[in-house]
């Protein structure tokens, strides 16, 4: 472990403060979860924005999705409510979950052996898709519907099919995307770029 003095000396030897690599770069799991969360910002759902990001064994993103109405179905004409006297006036019969869209949007031949990063623990319908698509691991952030029958069924299916699932514990609570940062040199970017 270098002391601060030694680090300063190293900077002097190198003649510039930006020759050491950044230490606060995003690690892969944070990056993929952040991609899922960024994608969720595309959602038109007023109550729930969920994103999913599928990654292969080479840490390459092969699919991204967020919750929304099916392609070609006008999301101004379909309902977004969670409750209504008639179930047909709620979003549930129509909306595609982020996991479904991420799998369908894949840019690879298949997603076998991949990991899915998703904001919410997948429901039982998405668990079926994940299993059938050959995804081997699910990394989720929130499990807020843990005690519902849908989530219980989901865990039962994922466990039986041998799909691993684990909760992501972020080291930071937020990641800020600052479009102005590219115009500034300093700690967040390399001035030589
Ligand atoms: Zn689902």
Structural write-up:
The protein is of the alpha/beta class. It is 28% helix and 14% strand. A hairpin with a 5-residue loop joins β1 and β2. The radius of gyration is 21 Å and the shape is globular. Zinc ion binds next to α4.
Ranges with pLDDT <50 over ≥5 residues? 8-15, 189-193
Q: Tell the overall outline.
A: globular
In DSSP terms (H or I, runs of 4 or more residues), the helix count works out at 5
Instruction: Kindly state the number of beta strands.
Output: 5
Q: SSE string, helix = H, strand = E?
A: HHEEHEHEHE
Return the structural class: alpha/beta
Fraction in beta strands: 5-15%
Strand order of the largest sheet: 2-1-3-4-5
Q: Kindly report the oligomeric state of this protein.
A: single chain
Q: Give the N-to-C terminal Cα separation.
A: 29 Å
Task: Give the fraction of residues assigned to helices.
Answer: 25-40%
What small molecules are bound in this structure? zinc ion
Quote the average pLDDT: 90
**Sheet with the most strands, sense and barrel status:** 5 strands, mixed
Based on CA atoms alone, the radius of gyration comes out at 21 Å
Pfam family, one: dCMP_cyt_deam_1
Protein name: Deoxycytidylate deaminase
InterPro entries: APOBEC/CMP_deaminase_Zn-bd (IPR016192), CMP_dCMP_dom (IPR002125), Cytidine_deaminase-like (IPR016193), dCMP_deaminase-rel (IPR015517), Deoxycytidylate_deaminase_dom (IPR035105)
Catalytic activity: 5-hydroxymethyl-dCMP + H2O + H(+) = 5-hydroxymethyl-dUMP + NH4(+); dCMP + H2O + H(+) = dUMP + NH4(+)
Brief write-up:
The chain is α/β, with parallel strands linked by helices and 193 residues long. It is built from 5 helices and 5 strands; from the N terminus they run ααββαβαβαβ. Helix 4 runs parallel beside helix 5.
């Amino acid at each position: 472990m270098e002391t601060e003095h030694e680090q300063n000396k190293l900077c002097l030897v190198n003649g510039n403060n930006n020759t050491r690599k950044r230490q606060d770069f995003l690690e892969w799991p944070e990056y993929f979860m952040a991609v899922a969360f960024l994608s969720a910002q595309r959602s038109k759902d007023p109550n729930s924005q969920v994103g999913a990001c599928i990654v292969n064994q080479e840490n390459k993103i092969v699919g991204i999705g967020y919750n929304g109405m099916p392609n070609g179905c006008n999301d101004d004409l379909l309902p977004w409510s969670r409750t209504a006297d008639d179930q047909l006036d709620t979003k549930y019969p129509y909306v595609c979950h982020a996991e479904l869209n991420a799998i369908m949007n894949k840019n690879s031949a298949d997603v076998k052996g991949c990991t899915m990063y998703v904001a919410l623990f997948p429901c039982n319908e998405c668990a079926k898709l994940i299993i059938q698509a050959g995804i081997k691991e699910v990394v989720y952030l929130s499990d807020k519907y843990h005690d519902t029958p849908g989530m219980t069924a989901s865990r039962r299916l994922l466990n039986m099919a041998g799909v691993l699932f684990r909760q992501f514990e972020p080291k930071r609570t937020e990641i800020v995307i600052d479009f102005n940062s590219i115009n500034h040199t300093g700690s967040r970017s390399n001035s030589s770029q």
